[in-house]
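As agreed, record passed on underneath.
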Amino acid sequence: MTESYPSTPTAPTRRTTLRAAGGGALLLGLGLTGCRSAVSEAESPAGQGKAGEAGKAGAEPRRGGTLSVAVNADFTPSLLFAQSAQSLQQRLIYNTLTRYDDRLKPQPELATSWEYAKDGRSITLALRTGVTFHDGRPFTADDVIFAVKNLQNPLRAAQLRATAAAVTGFEKRGDHELVLRLAHPVNNLFDLFEFMIITDRQSVEEAVAGKKLIGTGPFKLTEWRPGSGLSLTRNETYWNPGRPYLDRVELRVVPQADALLSSLRTGQSQLSFSVPGKNLALIAASPELAISEYSTGGGAVYLGVNTTVAPLNDKTVRQALAWGVDRERILKQVLGGYGLASATPWPKSSPAFTEAGRTHYTYNPGKARELLRSAGHTRLDLPLLHVNLPGETAVAEAVQYDLRQIGVHVTLQPTDSAAAQKNLISQNMPALWTMSHGFAQVQPSTLAVSAYPFNEAKNTSKYRSAAYTKVVREAWTTPAAGARANTLRQQITDTLLDEAFIIDLAIRGAVQVSSKKLHGVTLNKFSYLNLDDAYLAG
C-alpha cells in the first residue's frame, strides 16, 4: 500500500508506568477518547510490582463465555454517529475502514490497502472481500459511499462532518474498489476512516431510533433495554477467522459508584472504564482486578466558557478563570493521579504537544483576582453545568471551590449525560460547564475542524474569529509533517491559550479496570471497544 499524501506523524509509544496507585476516572465526561491498547504489565509508582495482568502475554486464548461490561451511561441511539461517552459499543457491532496503531499509522480493517494521489485530491481504497452484514447482505463499495454521505447529512450528529464533506466524488471500480475524490487535500482522512462506522444502509433510520443495529462487526445486537444496557451475541459469520472468542457481551448500566465497585469486586462485571478516580485505590487493593492506562489516547477534562454571556465575552475574564483553577490538585485528588495537568488539549503523543503550552496556565489565584479587577470585577455569580455522574460531579465541585477563591461563585447544574451532550452539540450551554473532550489524540487539525467545543465554524462557546478560521483551515489542508505544519499547530495552540474559550485542565487517556481473567481488550482512538481478541481465562 502506498500513502503519498499526507504523511502521518510519529509519536512516542504508550507509557508503561502508571502514574499513581490510587487511580483515576475514565469517562469523566462526554467525548473521552482512548487508544489502541492499554499498558499490560504496568508497574506502580512505588515499585511494588505489576498493577495488573489483563493483557499478560503467554496465556492461551479460551473460547466461550459472557463478558459483562459496566458502563455509567446508557446507549443513546440519536448519538449513534457522534463520538461520546455512549460510543463504547460501536466497534462491537460495526467495523470501520481502518484503525490507527499507537504511532498514528493506519492499519487495515474493512479497507485492506489504499493509495493516495500525489496531489492529495483522491484516494483509492481496496475493500475487504467476503464480508457480510449481520443480516447476510454482502459488504460492497456502496456501503462506504453511503457511510460518507450519511455523515455529510446535517441531520446527523457527527463530529467529522467537515472531513466527510470534503469528499465530493465517488468512482466505483467493481464491488470492492472505490476512489474517493476530494474537493481539497485534508490531512485527517484516516481519522474519518477510524471514526466512521459502517452501518447497514437499508436500516439506518431504524438504527437511530434504537430499533435495529446491523453492522459487520464481531457481535450482533440481541436486545437493548433502555436504561439497563445492551445484550450482544457472537457473530458466527464474522470475517475475521476464529474471532471473536467470547460468546456474549453484556453492557450493563451501573451509574452509582458504590454499585459499580461492588459489581467489579464481586465478579458480576469483568470490565469497566467508568470508575471514578477517588475509587480506584480500592480497586488497586483487590487481588482479582487489574488497572491499565491508555496513555497515548487523549481525552481531556475542561472548563467550557460561553463567550456570549457577559462578562465572559471579555477574554481577560476568561484568562482569569484559566489562572484560577488548580489543575494539579484536580489531577491528584479527583483523577487519582492518572493523566497530565495541562492548559492545552494535546496529549504527549500528539505532534502539537509542547511543555510550554502545557504549563502556560498554572495555579495563580492572585494573578486571577488581579485580572478580574483589571476588567472591573471583584465578584461574579455564574451557573456551571456538569454531567450528573460521580466522577463528573467531583470535577465540577473542584472547579467550583477554586473559582470561589478568586471571587467567582458558581451554581452547579447537574444534567444527565445524554442531555448534556445534546446541549453541547446545539450550542445551548450556560455561562460555564465542565465536561470532557476528545479529538486531540488524532491529527491535530481534527480538533479544530470537528470537535464541538473547538470547531472553528460553530463551537459550543460561540467563539468566532476570522484569524482562527484561517489558521485552522490551512492546518487542515497542509501535509501533516514539516515545518509549516508545526507552525500552524503552534498558532492554533496560541489562539486557544490566549482566547481561553475552552480552558483545558487535565489530559486523560482511558483507565481500564478489569478482571485478571480477562485478556486481549483494546480501544481504538475514539474509544470504540475492540473485543476481537478478548477472552476469559479459566
